What does this fold into?
Amino acid sequence: MIELTDYVPVLRGKKAEFDALGVLEGPARGCTRPLIEVAPMTFDEQTEEPVRTLEDHLDRTTRALQESWSDQQQNLFEPDAGLPPVVLYDLQTVGWSRTSGGDHPVEYLHAGLRSCGLRSVPVARLDDDRHFLEAVASVATDVGICLRLDRNQFSPPSRLMVELYARLVELGVSPDLVDIVIDLEYLAEDDGPSAFLMAQAALEALPDPAVWRSVVVVGSSFPTSVASVVRPHEGRVIKRAEWEMYASLADSIENLARLPTFGDYGIEGHTPDLAGPPPKITRKNMSPSIRYTGIGGWYVIRGSRFEDQGNEQYHGLAGEVTKSPHWQGSEYCWGDGYISRCAVFEDGPGSPQKWRQVGVNHHVTQVTAELASLFGT
It folds into this structure.
């Protein structure tokens, strides 16, 4: 079950994100309930065929979760073990594909995760096709489901009620086995007040808010492109509108039928078209950046193009982070330790993938600490 004081980061199912989870420590590890968006399949540019089979693609996700998160799980096959923390998985990017044996990806990934002792909960949407919903229903009997609702589906409330309960009938689950994710999607950094009103309206429109297994609200004001908001050799604080929204919800708890659990997109912006092909990014057009989460926002600092000055720039960028007022200290988490060592040339310089791991690890540690402070836990 997802508790009120837990944290639900929506993370891309890539190596950096899994590695970041793998080095989480202490309370941050204990109260994080990741929602993994399984990465889209890679296609050969000439043949336009998948580079890997669906089985290989999903097996990589299973192995990554097993290596990074299995200690968070209890053995599902011991009757007295109780319910372990959940791992939510969203397969929208590969829902169209099938294994060589004809299995739907939802069924195949669920079986693989379960064989590793991971309590996996499939994510569905109200507008999923019949085949996707049938696959979700086939695995929902013992773990329930997660329904991910976007912000446009809460109006009018009467339509939401009809569609929501119609889906539950199709899926064969009762509300007490359903995790609701209210996805506010992309937010501008100054959208904290309007995001609060959107979340409040969504909670009011949600039928019978107390009966659901959990209710989570997520969103992100992180820009989709760092280069569009941060100039080379400069640092900038980008406000976290989703955290401002959630703090306002917590302050208004007496006026809410239910305070949701908090979630966000980590150090990523919301991707509008989840199922679309990822944009082609070449190293020639990339520049190094560090995304460091603080209470007031993300401190983002950026260098010049890799083509011009290479990875060595990360040493200087790390040094700027450690000299900034946002710095939490080298002992704060694994990611901060890496930043500290890189700043004095004892580690690194690292790659964009390594710095994604560093940023996600610090972000999850920071957010879980903020939630603990907010709830006095």
